[in-house]
Amino acid sequence: MHMLVCGGTGCRASASDAIVETLNSELAAKGMENEVQVIMTGCFGFCEKGPIVKILPDNTFYTQVTPADSAEIVAEHIVKGRKVNRLLYTDPENKEHISDSKHMGFYKKQLRIALRNCGVINPENVEEYIARDGYQAIGKVFEMGAQATIEQMKKSGLRGRGGGGFPTGLKWEIASKNHADQKYVVCNADEGDPGAFMDRSILEGDPHSVIEAMTINGFCIGATKGLVYIRAEYPLAIKRLQIAIDQAREYGLLGKDILGSGFDFDIELRYGAGAFVCGEETALIHSMEGERGEPTVKPPFPAESGYLGKPTNVNNVETFANIPVIILKGAEWFSAIGSEKSKGTKVFALAGKINNVGLIEVPMGTTLREVIYEIGGGIKNGKKFKAVQTGGPSGGCLTEKHLDTPIDYDNLLAVGSMMGSGGMIVMDEDDCMVSVAKFYLEFTVEESCGKCSPCRIGNKRLHELLERITKGEGTMEDLDRLRNLSHVIKDSSLCGLGQTSPNPVLSTLDNFYDEYVAHVTERKCPAGQCKSLMQYVIDQEACVGCTACARNCPVNAIAGDRKKPHVIDTSICIKCGACIEKCKFNAISIQ
Amino acid sequence: MAKVKSLADLKKMKEQLQSKVDLREKGEDPESRVQIKVAMATCGIASGAKTVMDYFLEELDKRSIDAVITQTGCMGYCYAEPTIEVKLPGQEPVVIGYVDVKKADEIIEKYIKNGELVDGIIPMNYNTIDNQ
Ligand SMILES: Cc1cc2nc3c(=O)[nH]c(=O)nc-3n(C[C@H](O)[C@H](O)[C@H](O)COP(=O)(O)O)c2cc1C
Ligand code: SF4
User: Fold this and answer.
1) Closest approach of chain A CAs to the CA of B95, in angstroms?
2) Nearest 10 degrees: Cα torsion A204, A207, A209, A212
3) What's the Cα-to-Cα distance from B52 to each of A20, B39, B105, rounded to whole Å?
4) CB-CB neighbors (< 8 A) of B12 in chain A
5) How many angstroms is it from A310 CA to the middle of ligand 1?
6) Ligand nearest to the backbone CA of A279
7) Domains in chain A: how many in total?
8) What's the gap between Cα A54 and its chain centre?
């Protein structure tokens, strides 16, 4: 028998160590320490009801356990085999106790559709994919026919996971209606958002699902050729994808006359050099053609004139990964998951100041709070939540008041951010929001292709303004300038990069205006991040004159005689922090 | 490898593969063995999954434990990499995080040999499409 005690950071803070200890001593008192083993586990993803204790093999799930409950759990459950009812989870709907964790699937906030095979199958063995219904969807599509499949896709409500959220079925329909001697299917695996790794994980963990979906796409729109545009910085994803393509060919699942249908389809890889703008579909197509990776005006959309001027359907990796399941389980099954206008699930790369950094997949409509506190296990080191950034360089920073917003395309847009491709970065009280905006602008300035002036010049100016503000040289007029310039850039840029690049600035101005004002009027950074606005000061009372700081200062900014209080010359100080580390008397502080 | 020529062919192949897997999972296969999956996506490899996988391959062989060790993709627990899944015949699979060589040794000695769980188990915190 085993007793699993949740050792996730959330539960740990509320006494899981003490629970393990008391359980062990209670077991020892009953002489059962050799029969029952107490184990500390990782996070159960149910932190709201923590600490959790789960008993195996009967799967009993106790919630909100305290060290004082240990005696009862051991005496009742372990010795007498009777469950401790008061600690069982109560179903919020019908107020019944639920004891078997197998029957409480609803506590699991995640649902893995796009990630269904990641971490389950060996991605380098096609047979493992086939054993999990792999390539059956393409067989079913051949039986249903192209038209009916497109109808299914439309009915499912699937929207593009690459950021824009365009309805996939509709996109396919448009591409299918454009006639040409050759059409193309393109998988966008550029994934340029800083901090995002959803698409990489899918390609590394389940490459066949993307291959199968691209084949389905080809059959539906009448394309015989597929191209995957993938950044060269993803060597493992490239390797696994290539192995998968080779194996699919070997098994006759790619190539001529697939499954005896008479339909031919094959896939090639195209490597990108890792430019963010090449994720934009027209730039991506130009890059594949060997041209400069610069966007062009839409229309014409790729569905009319794409790769080599032919009708081309571009979809994102995660969009594709959903498709075989939708075909096999049906549009109704899929559209029952999610929110009213956004169906299915979304994969997020959860990062930043959060306990359970990881790759997660939740039904649309899950709230930010559930993601951050239930799945993410809350903020690291017990700090206070400040903001969550979604949508990468095109998105915005949302605050406490947005935490109960159900995540979907439209809700996130309404609160000034966007879904984007799925990066989600959590920030705590130590993060300076002006610096965060500056970070994203640095990225956009670097990644702007330079084709149009609002984006090329405007973003540079935005960045300069932010730089001034973080140095304490900004004025209140600068704040207005930031806002006005942002709107100009949004309204007049050619492609999605420029049209969204001011979003991090606008959303932080909206949600953290006070912080901007503090930088400008008080010349202070409330989060203590902006170096130029900090001053190191030695407390003259506390300093004993040990000279440790002066000896360790790399720029000799500290002066003072032995056994006399020291002083920092702030005009020389580079704010490296070496003195604070060396001072044994806590005499140095940052002001 | 002969090509899969039709959907019927594919389904037959799936049945065969599936029943092999089932036998293995239920432990009814007389040759049922310990199965270990190592999460080997970029994140896992960067935190040392390759070393762990090599260690299992070598040590299980040395300690004469019959096991199948395979690589798989990202399990999603980036905070606890490297992660592995161990499945003893006839039992539910267990995911264990923060596996280094020392932990791997403990897993072999305690869990694989004696069925005693070890610290660092990560509970499955998601629903799958199979039980939808
Ligand atoms: C600057 C910029 C970068 C983009 N980067 C990506 C990307 O990395 N991956 C992606 O799938 N889509 C990206 N997109 C969106 C694509 O243009 C396109 O809408 C998407 O690939 C369509 O697929 P979907 O409908 O399946 O989402 C980007 C768009 C812009 C404007
Ligand atoms: S908006 Fe920026 S990235 Fe897009 S075309 Fe203009 S300069 Fe290039």
Assistant:
1) 10
2) 170
3) 28, 10, 10
4) none
5) 19
6) 1
7) 5
8) 29
Q: Ligand 2 centre from A489 Cα, in Å? A: 10
Q: Is A462 an 8 Å CB contact of chain B? A: no
- Residue A377, domain CATH: 3.10.20.600
pTM for the model: 0.90
- Once rounded to an integer, what is the mean pLDDT over residues A438-445? 96
Q: By residue range, what is the domain housing residue A396?
A: 345-428
Is the peptide bond preceding residue A57 cis, with omega within 30 degrees of 0?
yes
How far apart CA A61 and CA A67 sit, in angstroms, is 16
Question: Taking 70 as the threshold, does the pLDDT of residue A48 lie above it?
Answer: yes
pLDDT digits (tens, 9 = 90+) for A112-136: 999 999 998 999 999 999 999 999 9
Same structural domain, A407 and A494: no
Share of chain A above pLDDT 70, in %: 97
Predicted pLDDT at B29: 58
Closest residue, chain B, to A3 (C-alpha): B117
Domain-located, residue A215: yes
pLDDT at position B23 is: 67
Token pair of A545, please? 């004159």
What is the token pair recorded at A25?
């001593």
- Determine the CATH number of domain B33-122: 3.40.30.10
What integer is the mean pLDDT of A405-421? 93
| pLDDT value for B31 | 58
Share the mean pLDDT of chain B: 88
Q: Return the bridge partners of B38, or none.
A: B71, B84
* Chain-centroid distance, C-alpha A407: 13
Contacts of A133 in chain B (CB under 8 A): 14
Query: Domain map of chain B by residue range?
Result: 1-29, 33-122
A489 located within any domain: yes
Strand (E) positions, A259-413? 266-272, 312-316, 345-352, 358-363, 385-390, 396-399
Give yes or no: residues A261 and A232 share one domain.
yes
